[in-house]
């Protein structure tokens, strides 16, 4: 691996890029692969890490919190799905109640219910 590629990888990792983004072009948060994001193949990166322990320590420190970033994205999506399901259920309940009541044409009153027991 050339020194300029190593510098690009270091800069990308400092800018919170993931290994998947550097090696496979996967954007953070998902989506289609972007070949412009690929800096090096995975096996070349791992071999360079084996040969250079200093670079390996740098990579380990740079990606130490990347798992938490992925979990934050996943849990925020889960919370969004739960919220939209709850809102959808509330809307369905409203419409279910709204249309369960009888409707009358305009100007016509609903039938009155009378009690046969009258006070005298």
Explain what the structure shows.
- By secondary structure, the protein is mainly α.
- The protein folds into two domains: 3-64, no CATH class; 70-98.
- It contains five helices and no strands.
- The model has no long low-confidence stretch (mean pLDDT 81).
Which regions contain 5 or more consecutive residues with pLDDT less than 50? none
Assembly context of the chains: single chain
Class derived from helix and strand content: mainly alpha
- The whole-number mean of residue pLDDT values reads 81
Strand content: under 5%
Radius of gyration: 31 Å
The biggest beta sheet reads: none
Count every beta strand, where a strand is a DSSP E run of 2 or more residues.
0
Gross morphology is: rod-shaped
Offer a few descriptive terms:
120 residues; mainly alpha; 2 domains
Compile the SSE list and pairings.
Blueprint lengths: L2 H12 L4 H6 L17 H10 L1 H10 L3 H35 L20
Q: Quick gist of this model?
A:
This protein is an all-alpha fold. Helix content is 61%, strand content 0%.
